[in-house]
Q: What sequence folds into this?
């Protein structure tokens, strides 16, 4: 069956790492004779420069009709002066909202060969393998009413944190089922000690746990989880949280691996349509220097093969190739302990050679 893929490189190093990913994708298309229809469009600041919008209706419509969207990164200081609705980041929020991408899966893992690159001591960080499931289209980021009131004294701004039962149940279902396929441990994170919406969240998740008796469910306050991720990250298997706390916790977890350039993510809707992107941003400070690490983007392709493109076998092959890449001592600048490292544009060809060797 034909699959449609939309590629959105974006800005900064997003363009560089996406180029590397496309090399790997094209190799697998040719090797496997895959029936994929690929479209590439601008997004974010690049789209604004081209059309005056961070996300055009044409691009959004193509996204709606795609099985998988491979997204680089957006943003940069040259667009910081733009109004809120025109900022590059709005493209990302609009895609999530319009496509109903409510479940964000962010694995945080460590190749033990890279333990020295982590800010944590080796005995704390070794064998790290966590999955954070973040609700992505609700909560305080999208709650209404919201705004800034300037015609009163004192002026004030306000946002609304809100979750309904259906939103909590669907993200909890994703998390419970992920836990069933891993070590059967789920930690639900909120602030039930001070927030009514968190008390409601905790109640719904607790009620749902009866449907998954094999999963060990625990509850934890978000500030404690942030601390525990640094003190003892291996106590976790799957973490589920709302949009705000999930955003913060997944970024903390991403830093534990030693380089955010290693970690992919997937954002899924109820139809297995997904947007796949590295956890890092556009990194304008290193853009154009050919030193960005494309592993996270290439690993995001692996997640696309698993969740949206119905080729789990190819997902496992990419994952295996990345492991071999690391075990053989190949390094990009961010994970290198010496002055020798691969340039961005050299990574894809190295991985392709590994894929060839392992396939033969």
A:
């Amino acid at each position: 069956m034909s699959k449609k893929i939309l590629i959105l490189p974006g800005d900064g190093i997003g363009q560089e790492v996406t180029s590397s990913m496309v090399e790997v994708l094209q190799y697998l298309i040719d090797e496997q004779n895959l029936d994929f229809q690929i479209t590439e469009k601008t997004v974010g600041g690049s789209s604004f420069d081209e059309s005056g919008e961070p996300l055009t209706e044409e691009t959004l419509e193509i996204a709606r009709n795609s099985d998988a969207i491979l997204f680089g990164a957006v943003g940069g200081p040259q667009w910081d002066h733009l109004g809120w609705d025109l900022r590059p980041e709005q493209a990302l929020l609009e895609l999530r909202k319009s496509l109903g991408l409510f479940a964000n899966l962010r694995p945080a893992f460590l190749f033990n060969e890279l333990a020295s690159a982590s800010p944590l001591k080796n005995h704390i960080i070794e064998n790290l393998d966590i999955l954070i499931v973040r609700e992505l289209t609700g909560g305080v980021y999208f709650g209404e009413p919201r705004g800034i009131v300037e015609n009163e004294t004192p002026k004030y701004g306000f946002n609304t944190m809100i979750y309904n039962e259906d939103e909590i149940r669907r993200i909890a279902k994703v998390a419970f089922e992920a836990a069933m396929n891993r070590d059967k441990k789920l930690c639900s994170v909120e602030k039930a000690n001070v927030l009514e919406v968190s008390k409601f969240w905790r109640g719904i998740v607790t009620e749902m746990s009866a449907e998954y008796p094999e999963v060990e469910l625990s509850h934890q306050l978000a500030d404690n989880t942030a601390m525990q991720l640094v003190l003892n990250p291996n106590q976790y298997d799957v973490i589920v949280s709302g949009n705000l706390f999930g955003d913060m916790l997944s970024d903390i977890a991403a830093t534990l691996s030693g380089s955010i350039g290693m970690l992919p993510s997937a954002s899924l809707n109820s139809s297995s349509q997904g947007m796949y992107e590295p956890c890092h941003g556009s990194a304008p400070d290193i853009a154009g220097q050919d030193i960005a690490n494309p592993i996270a983007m290439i690993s995001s392709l692996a997640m696309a093969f698993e969740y949206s493109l119905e080729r789990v076998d190819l997902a496992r092959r990419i994952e295996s190739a990345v492991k071999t890449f690391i075990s053989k001592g190949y390094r990009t600048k961010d994970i290198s302990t010496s002055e020798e490292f691969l340039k961005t544009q050299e990574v894809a060809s190295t991985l392709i050679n590994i894929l060839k060797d392992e396939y033969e």
The mean pLDDT is 95.
